[in-house]
Amino acid sequence: MPRAPFQFASALSTAADATRATEEAVEQVIATVGGPIDLAVVFVTPHHRQAFDEIREYLRLTLRPTIALGVSAGGVIGTGREVEDSAGLSLLVGNLPGAKLQPFTSDDLEQDWNNGPQGIRKFFASNVDGSLPNGVILFADPFSTPMTGVLPALTAALPGVPLIGGMASAAKQPNDNRLLFGDDIRTGGLIGLAVGGAARVDCTVSQGCRPIGKPMVITKAKRNVVFELGGRNALQVARDLLDGVTEEDRQLLQTTGWLVGRVIDEYKDRFGRGDFLIRQVIGIDPHAGYIAIGDAQVRVGQTIQFHVRDQRTAREDFSLLLEAQKLHRHDDDSGANVASPAGGLLFSCNGRGTHLFSEPSADATMVSQALGALPLAGFFAAGEIGPVGNDNFLHGHTASLAVIRQNA
Questions:
Q1: What are the DSSP E strand ranges found in 80-189?
Q2: Pairing of β 216-222 and β 303-308
């Protein structure tokens, strides 16, 4: 007997009153999703932060979700719409028959961190029918969660499993963010959801950049400092590049800063879109000619290339990557039948939105143009989590999209 299809619904309310905003969102989704609600994910702006416990309770009484997750953020995202600098509440609910959903917190993993990748892997395998999840959604407080250590540990424990999500962004100081996990409201730490069984998570990570110049091999480096590129003084290479680019690119480099893309898979013959991990140039030594990059994994032998970012490039990059999402509609590489997108979560940098684009709701609009009226919720993050190649990273100025589909 065929399994019932996934059902998702989303809603976005801009009501200034938290109670009214929650009521409006629930009214919209409850009419669409029939049967039990397996998952409810809610994102709220700082205007509703103090009422997060009341929001949680209203969702519990009306929707009765098996799993409830939520985050406070500087702005929220819904289907085709983004809310910045004003009150907003975004809600996504889903009924996922046959899916294996495992919520967890950093507290659940604390004991396993000391046991290395095997310990962490055992935690997930023992809770999701003995197999690794198909994807993991992560939310975290940036003040209390060392993601530079967490992500490598989870990636080593869950090889090939995409991790995607975002950092809470509603606070300027510790303990002011809010994370909803079931019946609890937390002010720090990490919460997550391992997704497996009949559900798969397809990820799109748009870093919004384009390369300039040519790829170069690091020939001398220490920690995150590059001394030589192709046997030449690194800063002189950068200066030569500046002399040879267009006036438009020169202005971008001087106003938005220098970006470096590090190749993830060195075995490729050619490097294109999605092959680079983008990091900022965070310092130079004009006398010695050194360049410091915001990347702790710089080493001799790696290939890097300078990049620039602007709204035109960001739009082009995200739109092209979303075209690839449309190709997942029928069959994946393994030959398994895959349904159309059922629901989505979008994590966009708080430096995107109208800070980057000349019109509002750009990222949300691009998702709708590519994937139709996909039930979508998301937020503007203080750091976006997503895969590049087979590794998972914490990004900046990125749009990370998780599309949930149903495996046959």
A1: 81-84, 89-95, 99-105, 135-140, 163-167, 179-181, 184-186
A2: antiparallel
In DSSP notation, 171-185 reads -SSTT---EEETTEE
Helix (H) or strand (E) holding 393: strand 391-395
Please name the residues in contact with 210: beta carbons below 8 A apart, sequence gap of 6 or more: 307, 308, 309, 313, 316, 317
Q: Is the dihedral of CA 121, 127, 129, 134 positive or negative?
A: negative
DSSP symbols for 62-87: HT--SEEEEEE-SEEEETTEEEESS-
| Relative orientation angle of helices 147-157 and 116-127, to the nearest 10 degrees | 70
- Per-residue pLDDT of 206-242, as tens digits, reads 999 989 989 999 999 999 999 999 999 999 999 999 8
pTM of the model: 0.92
Beta bridge partners of 179: 71, 186
CA-wise closest residue to 103 among 184, 33, 178: 184
- Rounded Cα distance between 158 and 12, Å, is 33
Give per-residue pLDDT as tens, 126-170.
665 678 899 999 999 999 999 988 999 999 999 999 999 999 999
Phi, psi of 118, rounded to the nearest 5 degrees: -65, -40
Spatial distance between the Cα atoms of 47 and 44, rounded to a whole number of angstroms? 8
Rounded Cα distance between 270 and 262, Å, is 13
Question: Per-residue DSSP letters for 315-327?
Answer: HHHHHHHHHHHHH
Name the residue among 343, 403, 393 with its Cα closest to residue 163. Answer: 393
Report the alpha-carbon distance of residue 282 to residue 223 in Å, rounded. Answer: 13
Give residue 383's region: left, alpha or beta (phi > 0; psi -120 to 50). Answer: left
